[in-house]
Amino acid sequence: MTTKTNDPVGEISGAKTHDLADALDSAECDLDSNQDGVIQVQNLPPQQRAKLWMIALNVSGKGDSLSSWDGALDLPEQTLIHSRSQQIIDELGLPVEEGLDLVSDVESVITFYCKSRNVTFTPDLSWLHILKPQLGLQLSRKDLYNCFYAIMNKYIPRDCVAKGRPFHLFRLLLQYHEPELCSFLDTKKITPDFYAINWLGSLFSSSCLPEVSQALWDVYLQQTDPFLIFFLMLIILVNAKDGIFIHEGESKEEIISKLKHSPEFLDVEDLEDLFSLAQYYNSKTPLSLRKENHNLFGSSLVALKEEDMDLSQALCLPVSVPEILQANQLQPEGVRFFVVDCRPAEQYNAGHLSTAFHLDSDLMLHNPSEFALSVKSLLEAQKQSLESGSVASGEHLCFMGSGREEEDMYMNMVLAHFLQKNKEFVSIAKGGFMALQQHLADINVEGPDNVYVHWIVSTSGSHSSLSSADDSTDGKGVKSLVNKMTFALKSKSVNVKEKVISFIENTSTPVDRNTALVHSIISSVSLCFYLMLFLFPSLFSDEIDGSSISDDDRKEIVNIQTWINKPDAKHHIPCNEVKETGHMFPSHLLITATHMYCLREIAARKGFAYIQSRQALNSVVKITSIFVLSIKNSKLNSLIFQYLIPNAGDATKVIKQQIMNVLDAMESS
Amino acid sequence: MQNNRKEHLYKILVIGDLGVGKTSIIKRYVHQTYSTNYRATIGVDFALKVLNWDSETVRLQLWDIAGQERFGNMTRVYYREAMGAFIVFDVTRPTTFEAVSKWKEDLDSKLTLSNGQSIATVLLANKCDQKRDFLTNNSLKMDQYCKENGFVGWFETSARENININEAANFLVKHIIASENDILKSVVPDTISPQLNSDKEMTCSYWLSLD
After folding, report:
1. Which residues of B touch A313 (CB under 8 A)?
2. Chain A: closest CA distance from residue B97 (Å)
3. pLDDT tens digits for B118-134?
4. Residue of chain A whose alpha carbon sits nearest to that of B18
5. Which residues contact A538 (CB under 8 A, 6 or more apart)?
6. Can you give the three-state secondary structure of B156-188, one letter per residue?
7. Are residues A143 and A50 in the same domain?
8. CB contact under 8 A, A416 and B45
9. How far apart are CA B124 and CA B100, in angstroms?
10. Residues A506, A507, A511, A515: what is their CA dihedral angle, to the nearest 10 degrees?
């Protein structure tokens, strides 16, 4: 739905109209070349689609696995397999001849799969839905089997059954981004397997229209990311959210059915947004979701270890200690954590992550009013650190306990308290402080130069800080530090009062925060649309500086009507500007031949407005109006402006057209 | 002020199946509010209620334990050091009553007083303002059930209509204090029958069900 050509980032690009078919036909087609965040949705003819999928699944040229098989269709559940195969072919509405062959192919593929994997076919499996999108592609029986096998192996998570592990994981993901919806569904006792078992089991082909499924797979298979399905599912839920909340009183069954059917409304046109959104949410999700669960996919027999965390019992998403340590160091954008240390004060003072905020969870029980104050100062400190861009900053709250169940019971209550208040981006440090110590010992960092040495600081006593401990042991590495630290745990020089905000180190490394702008607005999307503009600040910094000053007296005040009537104002679009805080300001977009102005109404002076921003149309990198909300996901930092507009479709068209005019003019000049 | 005033702190668990009204009962008791906007409790929550008990102060920590199965393992740590419990069921949903014995067994297996006795537990038949089908009006049967399953008593309650909540709490506190005294005296307590406590504005469901 978008395009704009001066696009050095290489996102959705009209300029990059690779002829995919040509690319595929050229001998050594490398799909990776298409993967730098490019999502291309186009309508492919069957042969090319077959080729594309086989390459993406890495099965082109693969041998015939069925050759060793005697072809006997003699499983106990054979009648069922046959009737299901027949049924799915009937749905395709093919000529009789062709249909018969296909039924036989499908039945063989399923029968052989059952035999070779020693599994039993049951009616609730989504296998036929997996085969369905492939049936129109004129694949040979061999290729059909290879594709089916590859999809099962690479993309369908194990334990994809009612109450299975993937659904517990999905629930945690939903809770992470949409706590309110998650809580609502929990209240209705609707677990994700009720509505999503076929989504996950068939990569949506059970629910989407056939042509949508195929187009979706075109993109999906090229992404080669088995976890992507979780994010697509998340977007479907985000999109269905308002519809569910409006009819809050509906029964469990009604809600499940509504959710189940919601992907049916997906259109090929929506896919690009669906994937962009999925990628956006992905970028806002801790990597531990994947790393700690990678054994959900693949044929590895290592499968699920006993020690793996029981996700069905998890209070919220667990994040690994290494990720916590790395995230704030390495990524200016993406997931950054604000670590909340919930251990008792004496443990905290004896040694803690230098960036961690201390929230004494005992307070919740023993002094509720002080606890409320602490929570307030926590949120304040988080805000400040985000503003200052310190290394401690992060919009993702990660709670750290001791790692010992008994001791962490109050931390769990604090955590539950935040979750109960529908706080998003809440996670727990897997294994707690114990795991942190273990990890530092494991990586065994040597010398004071190592970044990790500075991770742990101690505030108990006058100078039992770890750097001084380090001096005394002559830099023998973290192991000795950790020993010192554990020892220090027993010291009892606690001054509870001095524990709070000061530990947020302000390293004043400015970090671009523009990427943080977006998440808060999602909740209010319903019948309206968002219009989002993405701009390059580097090119037009003067104008953007002007626009980013908020509540500033220097802003020019104008009469709205006068401006609308100006001859060079080509279009006028009333809207609401949406700020990162979620605040909305009644505004007017005015499009001229070269610029877009945003006039913000002045509440106190009817008919007048501030000139809130002025953007050159050729600075717009991307513009989107979509069914939920869209996001830009690029390596470059850009500014994002968001406007809520009724009937945004028309408005977007108008603005896009004007942008194209500007660009055409630039090119021809 | 009254420096010689004695203070007691009692931890009371509120347990039972999902959606029976545990949080509503606590809200009603502690904050005198009721909300129709139901949301399942996540993990564990708690609230504090201060009572003037004769010449003493009693602080009740009411622990609201989520009924969701998912938290089963996690929430058990919160049983520790509790002195009393409410087990709640929903009179309109028979399955929640069937689960009562499961909750009681779970509680008794994980928690005993220092004298080996299980903690004082009161059964609450909540949502009694709503039409009910399965629960027999035969209070004798309920008495029998309580006796067999080790409850010190039962009440029909309604968080919405504020029926019997204070009464049930007072009743439980009385039992907690009694069992505390018993422990002090190292005397094995007998189940105290509710009728003996009919003084002190306590109305037990035995009488209410006659209304």
Report:
1. 70-74
2. 18
3. 999 999 999 998 876 55
4. A187
5. none
6. ECECCCCECHHHHHHHHHHHHHHHHHHHHHCCC
7. yes
8. yes
9. 10
10. -40
Identity of the residue in A186, A368, A405 whose CB atom sits nearest the CB atom of B77: A405
Using a pLDDT cut of 70, give the percent of chain A over it: 68
- Give the B window 172-211 contacts with A, CB below 8 Å: none
Are the Cβ atoms of A416 and B40 closer than 8 angstroms? no
Residue type, A258: K
The reply to whether A112 falls in a domain is: yes
Domains and CATH numbers, chain B: 7-187 (3.40.50.300)
Quick check: helix, strand or coil at residue A533? Answer: strand
Statement: residue A402 has pLDDT above 70: yes
Instruction: Dump the DSSP string for chain B.
Output: --TT--EEEEEEEEEESTTSSHHHHHHHHHH----S---PPPSEEEEEEEEEETTEEEEEEEEEE---GGGHHHHGGGGTT--EEEEEEETT-HHHHHHHHHHHHHHHHH---TTSPPPEEEEEEE-TTS--SSS-S-HHHHHHHHHHHT-SEEEE-BTTTTBSHHHHHHHHHHHHHHHHHHHHHT-PPPPPPGGGG-STT---HHHHTT-
Same domain, A171 and A225: yes
Tokens of A79: 């009648």
Number of other CB atoms surrounding residue A238 within 10 Å: 20
- Which among A314, A348, A367 is the end of a domain? A314
A81 and A151 share one domain: yes
Q: Which residue has the higher pLDDT, B132 or A126?
A: A126
Q: How confident is the model over A184-235, as pLDDT tens digits? A: 999 999 999 999 999 999 999 999 999 999 999 999 999 989 999 999 999 9
What is the greatest pairwise CA distance in chain A? 88
Reference A524, options A583, A599, A573; nearest CA is: A583
Q: Are residues A322 and A431 in the same domain?
A: yes
The pLDDT of A471-499, averaged and rounded, is 30
Helix (H, G, I), strand (E, B) or coil at A162: coil
**Same structural domain, A232 and A355:** no
Over residues A54-88, the pLDDT tens digits come to 999 999 888 998 998 998 999 999 999 999 999 99
Same domain, A644 and A663: yes
d(CA A39, CA A223): 9
Q: Does B68 touch chain A (CB under 8 A)?
A: yes
Q: Are A177 and A284 in contact (CB under 8 A)?
A: yes
Identify residue A232 by its one-letter amino acid code. Answer: L
* Backbone φ, ψ for residue B44 (5° rounding): -140, 140
Q: d(Cα A17, Cα A227) in Å, to the nearest integer?
A: 28
Instruction: Indicate the burial class of B201 (C-beta count within 10 angstroms; 0-12, 13-18, 19 or more).
Output: exposed
Which among A183, A312, A417 has the least Cβ separation from residue B40? A183
**Chain A residues near residue B64 by CB distance under 8 angstroms:** none
Last residue of a domain, one of A288, A314, A340: A314
B78 touches chain A (CB under 8 A): yes
CB contacts < 8 A, A to B, total 52
- Is A490 inside a domain boundary? no
DSSP helix/strand/coil, A429? strand
A26 within a domain of the structure (yes/no): no
Give the domain range for residue A105.
42-155
Encode pLDDT of B48-58 as tens digits.
Answer: 999 998 888 99
Q: What are phi and psi of B205, to 5 degrees?
A: -65, -15
CATH code at position A373: 3.40.250.10
CA distance A544 to A595: 13
